[in-house]
């Protein structure tokens, strides 16, 4: 690399792998003196037209002076980057810093000229757009704030690259040349463009893996059994619609088939393209296979081979080398140590996994980082009896293994617009990029349900997963996922329970539940479960054990017609002596009643009714079935009921309600009076099959009331989130915020060192710039000093010990309140020093008394993985001992602040619990918004704590505050698109 004294050290951190528009990958890196031959070879493959557009004249070849100039950079004022595939250049970009007169310059000049050249064979792949993002990031790092580019008018492709980037720009035309000037500071539009390009590229890269036109299984053994031979058989037996090849270098030269599949000794011997290779050879032979695949033009790999990061440090290094090697050729990897992938689409029918049976086609997308959990999930979704019964189906399945490359984020990008997927279920053991995951999850959840269960919640991530550490506890991560619309569950059983309901039924309009069935006891259990989950059940209707299928049909129809009901839970026990005929009749009665009112979800709780459960789900599709030509309803549209804080539901201890003869609302409401529904995002229509009669209304069945009700409660919460997400609120502007003054103060304070906790005066000054006023606390090293402080502040006052072991611990006696005069103050001072030691140990302070109210605590912290997080809870035992704290990602909107206040379990204390005066929650919400603005505007503020904050009936008082400053952590979500580094 370059070592001349006039050049800076090689900037290795500029190297990055990127996903291009067509789903392939490329390597972006700085150009060095060692690249002369590559540059010449690259230029020879560029067309004369592209050369003309670059140099504004015929330029058939580069001179030696040109090669020297384009490969010698100082990495400050002159920088060149290249995009490479297979080690060879496919595109280049460079900038040269210029002064106001357009001549070469050095800092502090902050403008540079930029120019691109892309090989014709790779134009249209988004290479120039990716290079622009990276060269702009490099320029900002080197103090350049503006790019200028001169382009011939006929070079419309390059003009489009600049104009579509989203930067603020100026455009002029003179001397036959278009001159573009644009600022490099990211804008909302440039970030939106970047995210949209990221989505298209990553979704396409996964689509290439899940829908290949041809597959080669490398390592298919000659003898039956073994991993490779099993995968080969599974692909063949699933009826893969593309071309399938078996590859094994140990095959005899004369052998041309294996299990009826064309067989070859090497991928190179295959006549024609190979889109996907399934690699099932020992880890030590994988590098040779990757080279052969790369040279043959294979687009992606599924590596089921083990012996990588899951096996220890040596395997981890082997895994890094595998990823680097594959990306050199533009290939993406699922795995290593992967269980495989499945696509049930009739256009593909791919089972490139170790699952011996392909799951039935359906509308659920399934992602598992663990092969064992993937097997369990496929089994539960597939079987008809026990657990969650009935047939369900999968659109696509990905088991990522060590997820060295393709991760859950990539698959989310694909499922977001996949017309064959209505519900996404994910089992995650680690989240490699929480910022990105929450961003993608919020977007996905706004279109289709996303249900997540996390493994390894209370320990380190599996050895095979290379993830950044987070300081946030699991409860906080879960709260942030819920804020993003993710349906968080704790077990794979709950994952499947929720998935079945969401795939088969519309979303409920609210929490009101009708319960009916032929068992009084089962109905009462369901009623109790509804109360426990925060739902609002009607008294159960007991149809008695003599109820016929027609009775169930009539009762269910009445319940669905009642405008005071949002969902119905049907409980059923078997009648003595009746068999499958009665089961089928009851299932048909429930289906027909539900089909007549498709806007409300229906669930069945059954007791060992295998026949009923199978009859209810006697179809292969999980798509909600509706009248022909009509979209499936999901999110009901009426205005939500008035929000109230958690904890104000019907008390669990109240008297159990009597069963009702019939549900409220005897008459069926006219159609025009029923709750309207919002439509599900458009999905591909699937033709009815022999197992899926057209118009069938599939009803999920559960073996326990608690499981059915919990799934319903999750659907209710998600439906409310969907309605709220349509109007997320805004981040308010406050005229008294002095952002520039705060920035100047922070810069001055950070000049002292890399990180520091501010003193009391500095904390008060900084918070004051954002309209947050902290009550003064004057030090009282002696009783006389305490008396003087009280006279300054005015009585009544509080005397507090601020030593770490006594701070915020009124229960230990380190606080004396409502001291009305000097005598009381001096007596209290003497008591504190007698009990706890000398003033030097106590660090006493005097503070003017604040109005009585509810003590709360507000915190904000920047986590290196998840980003800035705002937390809120009641001060003391509620938050410290019971963990009753709520969290939101910063920046927080006004609606999110209101939700934050109401989401803790002890929120009723703020709203007049047991006749107490309600606290001023509007003032509290404003305080939360101001803290959010402070941290969002100034990433150098890495931690803020306001404790205690006393929220009175009118206004609030911040009695204690601390702020920590540090250089802002790197924001990988604001930089150019990159794949995780290896």
Broad structural category: alpha/beta
Unreliable residue runs: 1-6, 384-390, 619-695
Number of strands: 41
Widest beta sheet: strand line-up = 1-2-3-4-5-6-8-7
Largest sheet: 8 strands, mixed
Helix proportion range: 25-40%
Radius of gyration: 33 Å
N- to C-terminal separation? 20 Å
Q: What general outline do the C-alpha atoms trace?
A: flat
The share of residues in extended strands comes to 15-25%
Q: What is the arithmetic mean of pLDDT?
A: 85
**Total of helices:** 27
Describe this structure in words.
The chain is built from 27 helices and 41 strands. With 982 residues, it is of the alpha/beta class. The strands form seven sheets. An eight-stranded mixed beta sheet has the order 1-2-3-4-5-6-8-7, with helices on both faces. Strands 11-12-10-9-13-14-15 form a seven-stranded mixed beta sheet, with helices on both faces. A seven-stranded mixed beta sheet has the order 17-16-19-18-20-21-22, with helices on both faces. The longest helix is centred in the first third of the chain and has 23 residues, at 188-210. It is flat, with a radius of gyration of 33 Å. The protein starts with 15 loop residues before the first strand and ends in a 17-residue tail after the last strand. Residues 1-6, 384-390 and 619-695 have low confidence and may be disordered.
